[in-house]
Design a protein that fits this description.
Bound molecules: iron/sulfur cluster
Low-confidence stretches: none
Distance between the termini: 47 Å
Number of strands: 12
Strand order of the largest sheet: 3-2-6-7-8-9-1-10
Number of domains: 2
Strand content: 15-25%
Radius of gyration: 22 Å
C-alpha cells in the first residue's frame, strides 16, 4: 500500500490549490456542532470533528431537487436537469463513506438513477479518520471504522502532518498535481495503526451486546415484541431520525405546473417511513397507520429487508438518529439490545 505524508503547512497549500480549481465542500464548525458546507479558505475546513449533523448524502441525493422541466406548447418538450460540474467533498469519516457505498448500490440497481449517479461520477471523496467519537456513535460494532475501496484519498492526522492513503487513480492524480508529499516512514505507518486502534477502542466502550451478523435473525424473531409499542408510544412522527440518516434514501416525486399551464417541473424531496402519510395511497388508505407499525418498519427495513438486498445492515453506527430524536427512542443500540434481551428471555 502506497502511503504518503503531507506536512501541516503543505496541507493548507493543498487545500488552497483545490479551492482554486474545484468547488470544495467540507466540514465546518459552528460552536460545538459540525456541518458540511462550501469551503472558501483552508482555515474554514475542519478535519477534527466527531460527527456532522447531516451526512454528506445531501450532495448526491439533495433534500429537494428538480428532476426535469417541461413545456406543453407549441409541442411537449421535456428536459432532464443534471448536475455535472466536478466537485470535492473533503473530510468524510469511514462510516459515511460506507453509507455512500451502500447508496451507490441502491441507486444503481433496477432502473439506475441518472441524477444520483451523475453527481457521484462528478465527485471526489477525500476521507479522514475520526479524531474523536460522538457520544451516540457505535460504528465499530457496525464494522464501519475503516472503509477500504470507498474513497479517492484517505487522511489520518498524525500530529505534524497527515498520512494519506491513495484509493483511486483520480485521487492519485489530484495529489500529484496539487500536493507536496513524501513517502511515509515505517514509524509513521505504525503511528496510523495505533491512532486507529485507540479511536476504535473508545468507540467500542458502549455498543451492541451481540455481533452485527445476528441482527437479521433478531428482526425475524422480534415481530411480536412489546418493545415496539412501548418505544413507539413516545414517537412524535417528526421524521428527524430518517432525515439525518446516511443510509435512508426514500423520496417523494411530484409535478408543479405554472398557472399558464405551459411550463412546469418535476421535483423530488426526501421522504421517510416514520412520517405519518408516507404509506398513504390515493384512495386514502394508509398501510402503516399506527406509530408502532412505522417505528418497527424502520428497524425491519435496515436490519432485514435491505440486508437481503445489500448483504449488509443498512446502518453504519453514526448515531445521528439517536442524537436527533427529541423523544430519545431512536437509538439503535438501545433498541437492538432491548429486543435481544426480550426475545432471549
Ligand atoms: S440508523 Fe441511525 S445510527 Fe444507523 S446509520 Fe442511520 S442515523 Fe446512523
Ligand atoms: S426522531 Fe424520534 S420522535 Fe422523531 S420520528 Fe424518529 S423515533 Fe419518532
Amino acid at each position: 500500500m502506497d502511503l504518503r505524508v503531507i506536512e501541516k503547512p503543505d496541507h493548507g497549500l493543498f487545500v488552497q490549490n483545490l479551492i482554486r480549481n474545484y468547488r470544495v465542500e467540507g466540514v465546518k464548525r459552528r460552536g460545538r456542532t459540525f456541518f458540511y458546507g462550501l469551503i472558501r479558505s483552508p482555515e474554514e475546513l475542519c478535519l477534527d470533528f466527531d460527527c456532522t449533523i447531516i451526512p454528506p448524502k445531501k450532495y448526491f441525493s439533495p433534500p429537494k431537487e428538480t428532476l426535469l422541466q417541461f413545456t406543453t406548447a407549441p409541442s411537449l418538450e421535456v428536459a432532464a436537469v443534471m448536475e455535472e460540474a466536478p466537485f470535492i467533498i473533503f473530510g468524510v469519516h469511514p462510516y459515511d463513506l460506507k453509507a455512500i457505498q451502500q447508496m451507490d448500490r441502491i441507486f444503481s440497481r433496477g432502473v439506475p438513477d441518472p441524477h444520483y449517479l451523475k453527481r457521484r461520477e462528478s465527485a471526489l471523496l477525500i476521507g479522514v479518520d475520526p479524531t474523536g467519537v460522538a457520544p451516540r456513535s457505535f460504528w465499530v460494532d457496525m464494522e464501519a471504522d475503516t472503509a477500504p475501496g470507498c474513497f479517492d484519498l484517505m487522511f489520518t492526522d498524525i500530529g505534524e502532518g497527515f498520512i494519506i492513503e491513495i484509493g483511486s487513480r483520480k485521487g492519485e492524480d489530484l495529489l500529484a498535481q496539487y500536493g507536496k508529499t513524501r513517502k511515509a516512514t515505517i514509524a509513521e505507518q505504525q503511528q496510523r495503526t495505533n491512532i486507529r486502534s485507540r479511536i476504535a477502542q473508545s468507540c467500542k466502550e458502549k455498543g451492541l451486546d451481540f455481533p452485527k451478523r445476528q441482527i437479521p435473525g433478531l428482526m425475524e424473531r422480534s415481530d411480536e415484541s412489546l418493545i415496539w409499542e412501548e418505544k413507539a408510544s413516545k414517537c412524535l412522527s417528526c421524521g428527524t431520525c430518517i432525515m439525518v440518516c446516511p443510509t435512508c434514501f426514500c423520496f417523494d416525486v411530484w409535478d408543479e405546473v405554472e398557472l399558464d399551464l405551459l411550463h412546469g417541473e418535476r421535483l423530488r424531496r426526501w421522504d421517510g417511513c416514520l412520517l405519518q402519510d408516507f404509506a398513504k395511497v390515493a384512495s386514502g388508505e394508509n398501510f402503516r397507520e399506527s406509530k408502532t407499525s412505522r417505528y418497527r418498519h424502520r428497524f425491519f427495513k435496515k436490519g432485514l429487508y435491505l440486508f437481503k438486498v445489500l448483504d449488509d445492515i443498512a446502518c453504519v453506527g453514526c448515531g445521528r438518529c439517536s442524537t436527533g430524536c427529541l423523544a430519545d427512542i431512536a437509538d439503535p443500540v438501545d433498541v437492538l439490545n432491548s429486543l435481544n434481551g426480550d426475545v432471549n428471555a
